[in-house]
Amino acid sequence: MPDIANRVMAVRQHVDETVATAMAHLIEDAPDFGLNRVNPLAFARTNGLGEQESIAAFLHATQLGLFELSWNVVCQSCGGVLYQAESLQGIDQHHYNCSFCSLDCEPTLDETVEITFTVDPRIRHIAAHDPDSLPLWDYTRQIFWSSGSDLPEHLAPIVSEVVLDAFEIVPGARMSRQVQMSEGVVILFDPVTHSSRFLEVSGEPAEGQRLSIELDDAHQAGEALRVAPGLLTLDLENRTNRRIIPILWIASEALEAILTRRVPVLTAKRLLTHQTFRDIYRTNVLDLNQRFRITSLTLPVHRPEGIDRTLRADRRPCRFRSGALAFPAHVSGRFRPWRRGGQDDRRCDHGNLPDSGAGRGRRT
After folding, report:
1. Alpha helices in 17-173, H assignment, sequence order
2. Ramachandran area for residue 22 (φ above 0: left; ψ -120 to 50: alpha; else beta)
3. Which of 5, 28, 59, 96 is the most buried (most CB within 10 A)?
4. Residues 198, 185 contacting (CB under 8 angstroms)
5. Ramachandran bin of 181, using left for φ above 0, alpha for ψ from -120 to 50, beta for the remaining angles
């Protein structure tokens, strides 16, 4: 096993002793949950430390092989991680779709791209290093939701009133379950494949209903299916080579209250403007030809003659309705009483952006 003490000692050469000591305790003593997608701002708050110093510590620790840094595209509506990249160049799409909210989210460095740190598996192996082995609710909390979601480690108790049922289906298998449906909207969402269906429950009660749904890797999102109130036999088939964990969520104000619980995160903009990040990575990270927007980013650039100037990139911000859970337009409005502002447009699109080469990354 790598010598953690020596690496932490190397971190101490760059940051305050108190910060390095807190990081050592985190690596050695924290539960697995606490070492997956660490939010450095939350780390600073928990330990009574400065945010800038804590960010610097994690950057140096990453350089020394203690942590791995990831760039996560996050849905501002539900807080789910839509895409995780190992580098900024990996975020190369015009938009990333959230099938839970039926939203197309455009990456913006100061709004929808968060930075997290996960302990390197060579330093300490944690359960999240093998996501498919995580129990259903642990996967949902640790892999789907972001570091900005203010949710507890154990998710099941707080979601009991907004979940009708949850399934765990191995590759190639089918599962049938009888579910009592009440009038409203139910979201069938699988956080592994990011596939969803919207079940609109309305009309006269009916018995003997049956609905079959196949889930595959095609990232199917937003299809609305009508069912009547009453007992529904739901047949689900896993057409992937991974375990899937589809969940039936009751669309309601209670669900919105869970999805909108947030804490501050380290944004890509703040990371790019941090002195330690600039010292370590210089100008090798940011490519303004990539498919994301920067609403306001100021980067100090050192000219050869020794005079600092400011490079400023201004773009129109992506228009999101913070805290509003969105649904497809064909889902009846009377089942969306909590929507704010009355906006029905679910795509934040500022036109075509230049192409760029693909980078490494994965959909969570």
Report:
1. 17-29, 40-47, 51-63, 136-139, 156-159
2. alpha
3. 59
4. yes
5. beta
Query: For the stretch 70-104, what's the b/e string if a residue is b when 16 or more beta carbons lie within 10 angstroms of its beta carbon?
Result: bbbbbbbbbbbbbbbbeebbbbbbbbbbbbbbbbb
Q: Which two tokens stand for residue 200?
A: 């609109």
212 three-state secondary structure:
strand
Residue 240 near residue 77 (C-beta atoms within 8 A): no
- The label of the residue with tokens 């009916």 reads 206
The pTM for the full model equals: 0.81
262 burial type by CB count under 10 A (0-12 exposed, 13-18 middle, 19+ buried): middle
What is the block-wise mean pLDDT of the chain (364 residues), using blocks of 10 residues? 83 95 97 98 98 98 97 97 94 93 92 97 97 97 97 92 97 97 98 96 95 89 91 98 98 95 96 94 62 54 44 39 45 38 36 34 59
Q: At 281, which amino acid appears?
A: Y
> How far is the C-alpha of 48 from the C-alpha of 144, rounded, in Å?
28
Q: Where do we find the tokens 């154990």?
A: 154
pLDDT for 285 equals 62
> Per-residue DSSP letters for 98-139?
ETTTTEEE--BTTTTEEEEEEE-TTT---GGGSGGGS-HHHH
Q: CB neighbours of 246 closer than 8 A, spacing ≥ 6?
A: 166, 167, 169, 188, 189, 190, 195, 215, 236
To 10 degrees, what angle do helices 40-47 and 17-29 make?
110
Backbone angles phi, psi at 258, to 5 degrees: -75, -45
pLDDT at 345: 40
CB-based contacts of 297, cutoff 8 Å, min separation 6: 109, 110, 269, 272, 273, 312, 313
Establish how many alpha carbons lie within 13 A of residue 38's alpha carbon, considering only the half-sphere containing its beta carbon.
29
Residue listed under structure tokens 């609403």: 295
